[in-house]
């Protein structure tokens, strides 16, 4: 329900809204911390649960989840640059953070940096 709400409301999201940007290397392990979403939204961590926070992403599996105790955005699964971006030079994942109590949507752009794990050998 929350992801569907995010997709529907995401279409109403204004392009001029401020976005949160994170940059991370590819192939991080499940459970790795990406950033403090509560702090970046100007909230105390305990407010995330009170305000009904949710994460929605388009076209990908649910890769990120909020930690309601710390306010951090956590990897729910392994991120593989080649798999997600199919060799594009610039890989960006677009997420939406939803706060249900005020029906607010915040854009999050996650840039996945290729660490070139497949180095050619000569």
Architecture blueprint of SSEs:
Elements: H1 2-10, E1 19-25, E2 33-36, H2 37-40, H3 45-50, E3 53-57, E4 64-66, E5 72-75, H4 81-85, E6 91-99, E7 104-113
Parallel strand pairs: 1-7
Antiparallel strand pairs: 2-5, 3-6, 4-5, 6-7
Care to describe what's here?
By secondary structure, this protein is of the alpha+beta class. The protein has a single domain (2-91, 101-113), classed as Cadherins (Immunoglobulin-like), CATH 2.60.40.60. 20% of the residues lie in helices and 34% in strands. The protein has four helices and seven strands, in the order αββααβββαββ. It has helices at residues 2-10, 37-40, 45-50, 81-85; strands at residues 19-25, 33-36, 53-57, 64-66, 72-75, 91-99, 104-113. The strands form two sheets. The chain has a four-stranded mixed sheet. Strands 2-5-4 form a three-stranded antiparallel sheet. It is elongated and about 40 Å long.
Computed structural class: alpha+beta
Overall pLDDT confidence:
75
Radius of gyration, taken over Cα atoms and rounded to an integer in Å: 15 Å
The quaternary structure here is: single chain
**What is the number of independent domains?**
1
The CATH topology annotation reads as: Immunoglobulin-like
How would a crystallographer describe the biggest sheet?
Answer: 4 strands, mixed
* Topology, number of strands: 7
Q: Could you estimate the helical fraction of the residues in percent?
A: 10-25%
């Amino acid at each position: 329900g929350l992801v569907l709400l995010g997709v529907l409301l995401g279409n109403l999201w204004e392009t001029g809204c401020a976005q949160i940007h994170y940059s991370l290397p590819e192939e991080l392990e499940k459970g790795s911390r990406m950033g403090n979403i509560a702090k970046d939204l100007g909230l105390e961590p305990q407010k995330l649960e009170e305000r009904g926070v949710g994460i929605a992403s388009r076209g990908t599996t649910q890769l990120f989840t909020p930690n309601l105790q710390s306010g951090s955005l956590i990897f729910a699964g392994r991120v593989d640059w080649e798999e997600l971006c199919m060799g594009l030079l610039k890989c960006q994942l677009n997420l939406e953070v939803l706060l249900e109590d005020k029906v607010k949507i915040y854009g999050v752009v996650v840039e996945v940096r290729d660490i070139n794990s497949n180095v050619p050998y000569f």
